[in-house]
Amino acid sequence: MNIHSLSRDKKLKVTKRSNNDKYNRILEAAVKVFSTLGFFQSTVSQIAKEAGVADGTIYLYFKNKEDILGNVFSYKTKQVFDQFREEVNKAERAKDKLLSLIKRHLEEFERDKNLANLYLVETYQKVRTAEDQIKEMSKMYLDIISEIVKLGQNEGTIRTDLDITLVKRFIIGAVHEVIFTWVRSANDYRLSFVAEELVELIIKGIGTCDKRKK
Amino acid sequence: MNIHSLSRDKKLKVTKRSNNDKYNRILEAAVKVFSTLGFFQSTVSQIAKEAGVADGTIYLYFKNKEDILGNVFSYKTKQVFDQFREEVNKAERAKDKLLSLIKRHLEEFERDKNLANLYLVETYQKVRTAEDQIKEMSKMYLDIISEIVKLGQNEGTIRTDLDITLVKRFIIGAVHEVIFTWVRSANDYRLSFVAEELVELIIKGIGTCDKRKK
Amino acid sequence: MNIHSLSRDKKLKVTKRSNNDKYNRILEAAVKVFSTLGFFQSTVSQIAKEAGVADGTIYLYFKNKEDILGNVFSYKTKQVFDQFREEVNKAERAKDKLLSLIKRHLEEFERDKNLANLYLVETYQKVRTAEDQIKEMSKMYLDIISEIVKLGQNEGTIRTDLDITLVKRFIIGAVHEVIFTWVRSANDYRLSFVAEELVELIIKGIGTCDKRKK
Amino acid sequence: MNIHSLSRDKKLKVTKRSNNDKYNRILEAAVKVFSTLGFFQSTVSQIAKEAGVADGTIYLYFKNKEDILGNVFSYKTKQVFDQFREEVNKAERAKDKLLSLIKRHLEEFERDKNLANLYLVETYQKVRTAEDQIKEMSKMYLDIISEIVKLGQNEGTIRTDLDITLVKRFIIGAVHEVIFTWVRSANDYRLSFVAEELVELIIKGIGTCDKRKK
DNA sequence: GATGAATGAGCGTTCATTCAT
DNA sequence: GATGAATGAACGCTCATTCAT
């Protein structure tokens, strides 16, 4: 269980339960603050206040401001992503696996809107530490999709004339945008309820039956 | 043809030919710098240096740092988006219109990678000025998609059992992600060449023919 | 006893003994720098250096540059003015009260030449924060004079055919100018020693006994 | 007739009537702007706009910003002060001379409120160029008072037991404060009408007849 | 002479980070 | 470990002054 892997290099300063609690409070606060203001407009002081600790305390648990963001991704967000694989394994058929993946994805992000927002915002940002973490998670996600697509092709349920790379972007893009819209909206609908229709769109497309006669 | 509409309110200090050139040089420099570092990590000084002008000169053309970004969108990016509608009008059938739209979109962003990057980065950012501009452009884009979908439904080429809002997100998300991947890649392939396959995916989905028997 | 009342609104960040010292050091430094260069030509850096603190430290105790000046008046200068009333109360007769007031005024300003200078300079300046503070103190001073004059009129020692407003200006103007001259001079004489002669001038005027025969 | 004596050192750039007009327009504009905002908060651009000339034009007539202020005093304000002596000469007796002086002083400053304000503000400021000019004018004024007092002493109308330096400050301070009050008020009364009562105060003081029995 | 666009030094202010307590 | 006052580098922005036209 890797806790603050980034700040570890220097000294493993924090090990006790009670401190772990403080570590988590800071992380939670950071998610909230970062997601509201964005990384650059957020202040270490704000995070400290939100977490109920002194400014200086932050630096006992994190190397610097960037490291906080890094830990949010390597620890908090990663937890979420790690579950995706398990979830996918439970299903048998490609389509069901895809549905499981997306549904779980939407459910998790629905559960923590701040984290969802932060993930999206920072995905497109230029903060070195976070970038690497995100790339890693993104890659994991894309790999799962790859496997599902290949499985579907073997099943005969997914077309074989596809550029896998494109398909991956096609799916992940649609999912991201659906989440993004929800995050920036009034949230008066259940994000996860969209999963089925979205998967259907991905599988069938928007065209009608007779489209291939064209 | 309205140039630098945002900075005009206060005093239209600079209007002569030669100056328009300087206005554009700053804008171009800003696209480059902002897209490389992001808005908050970019420095007015960097933009000035990149544009080959003094720091103070920036403020003859723009109200402040945010205004530069605002102008990039209201002037430079908007130009691009304005062409989309024309392009779409040229085609007759829904599918062709969609192809035109996306192809043109990819072509334009391929032409100016920095602008493409900046657009994506700032779409997910929290910079007030830019946010409003982007929402406006985004809305225009979504409206075009709406029209295309409705046309297709009338033609009988697009399914009528669709949640239009979801479809719009589905399409725009896929396009964005494809562009994003290209921007962050080595760019050793032609972005616009992906258009046809992407549109096919959107229309037909990833499933095989017999999928509806399921 | 309210210390630094102005900067308190936001956050009372600093309250401990040791810090109060720093607050006062900055205030003292500000009086010196402001009085030497005037508000606008003074630099926050100069004040910081004079106080022996870092630039940023200033902002732990004051909201901004103007707030420093505001505090000089609301705290430091006000202390001085507050004593005037007490002093006046000790005397019985109008003339003695006037002498007490002016003597104390000169003594206090003689004690801190920088503060005296600053008060005079900023009285005629346009710095919002200071303006209000000064008006308040000025009003208090004028009120005291009013009371003294009325008392004298009841005693029969002060003429009743006077425009009180004019009298107030007449007195305060004379006092200010006397102080101003001393401040800008080599200070080789005792300012407070002038008090008696000045009061005599105010009471008797410059004319000779037989003047009213004219 | 010394025009812009300060900027003359470099090159006597301006000599034609038409330019003299421009010189005056700038001076007039400067009085207005400086008196409203104070020297340091005024902008050369503001003065140029107020005068209806280009920013650069200012520097054809004045060496720099300070020089504008210097010229306001050496040329415009000096004109006013020069008349005082003539005015005083017309009267015979000391008291009448004093009345003439103060009345004319109030009349002139009443005529140009901006100039009055500027004079007072800058008297207490630290702008080198202006300081010297003002000292010069101030000295002239004080000399006139000296002469009047001595004359009065010879006439037997003014007390001989006076410290002349103090008397001068006593008079000039009262006059300044009366003007200052008017400048900062709504100006709904005639400043010059105060002259007689003020002179009476200076001569007789605020005490009653029987005061010397005390 | 007149213009006003261009310059860049200089200042107020913020905030990540440190360190004495 | 925890604190939060202190630090000072860095940045956005202003404006007096210059100079090509």
Structure description:
Four copies of one chain form a homotetramer. The first copy, chain A, is mainly alpha-helical. The first copy, chain A, has one domain (17-205): Tetracycline Repressor, domain 2. Chain A contains nine helices and no strands. Chain A has helices at residues 17-37, 44-51, 55-61, 65-90, 94-111, 113-123, 128-155, 164-184, 195-204. In chain A, helix 1 crosses helix 2 (44-51) and helix 5 packs across helix 6. The longest helix of chain A is centred in the middle third of the chain and has 28 residues, at 128-155. At the A-B interface, helix 6, helix 8 and helix 9 of A face helix 7, helix 9 and helix 10 of B.
Map the helices and strands.
Four copies of one chain form a homotetramer.
Chain A: H1 17-37, H2 44-51, H3 55-61, H4 65-90, H5 94-111, H6 113-123, H7 128-155, H8 164-184, H9 195-204
Helix pairs in contact in A: 1-2, 1-4, 1-6, 2-3, 4-5, 4-7, 5-6, 5-7, 5-9, 6-8, 7-8
Chain A binds a DNA duplex (21 and 21 nucleotides) through residues 13-14, 16, 19, 22, 43-45, 48, 53-60, 64-65.
Q: Helix segment count of chain A?
A: 9
Total beta-strand segments of chain A: 0
The termini of chain A sit apart by 55 Å
Strand content of chain A: under 5%
Roughly what percent helix of chain A?
A: over 70%
Please give the largest β-sheet of chain A: none
Low-confidence stretches of chain A: 1-17
Quote the average pLDDT of chain A. 87
Question: How many discrete structural domains of chain A?
Answer: 1
The CATH superfamily of chain A is Tetracycline Repressor, domain 2
Largest interface: A-B, 50 and 52 residues
Instruction: Report the principal-axis shape of chain A.
Output: elongated
Listing every helix as H and every strand as E from the N terminus to the C terminus, the arrangement of chain A reads: HHHHHHHHH
CATH class of chain A: Mainly Alpha
CATH topology of chain A: Tetracycline Repressor, domain 2
Work out the oligomeric state of the chains in this entry: homotetramer
Strand-pairing-aware structural class of chain A: mainly alpha
